[in-house]
């Protein structure tokens, strides 16, 4: 049995990615929550663990891992089965690119601290914030829709879950939260539905986390 502690937050999509990967691998872990709405992630005791004051952080004994992409790579190396990356280097690069569209190009622009800056520093109202989210989410998802049409099967790449699905499912959850129109992305919605029907994805869903709002 592993002795892991995941520092996260139920509605954090980056934490959600890690929960999915751990569930797919069948790895047990404890959870410590940091309520992003109250700024708990910026507390000195958590910054001693994760200097950026961001979630997730995965603690394994004396090792502290941050950044969800790096954590997923570590999980894949530590527990190779079932694989979440294809063995072929070209195919693995495609899966990483799919994940990167979300992790690097969509998610950072809709991150809580960015949205707070739009509101507090630039005076954006909620309609403007939602338009901002829809713009950058839509651009990224359009590219992903093309890649999934090219490479996908039941899942985003072929017929088995991969890093791409670990990213797509949380991002579509976020998109729905903010009212983003997903009708232009039928392949992504089909991939999301197939993934969410699996027990591992269901267990990782935000609403099923111990710190979720009632």
Brief characterization of the structure:
By secondary structure, the chain is of the alpha+beta class.
Structure, explained:
- The protein is α+β, with helices and mostly antiparallel strands.
- The chain has 2 domains: 4-82, Glutaredoxin (3-Layer(aba) Sandwich); 89-200, Glutathione S-transferase Yfyf (Class Pi), Chain A, domain 2 (Up-down Bundle), CATH 1.20.1050.10.
- Helices cover 54% and strands 8% of the residues.
- The chain has 9 helices and 4 strands, in the order βαβαββααααααα.
- β3 and β4 (63-66) form a beta hairpin.
- α4 (89-106) packs antiparallel against α6 and α4 packs parallel to α7 (163-177).
How does the SSE layout of this entry go?
Layout: E1 4-8, H1 13-25, E2 30-33, H2 44-47, E3 57-60, E4 63-66, H3 68-78, H4 89-106, H5 112-122, H6 126-151, H7 163-177, H8 186-196, H9 199-204
Parallel strand pairs: 1-2
Antiparallel strand pairs: 1-3, 3-4
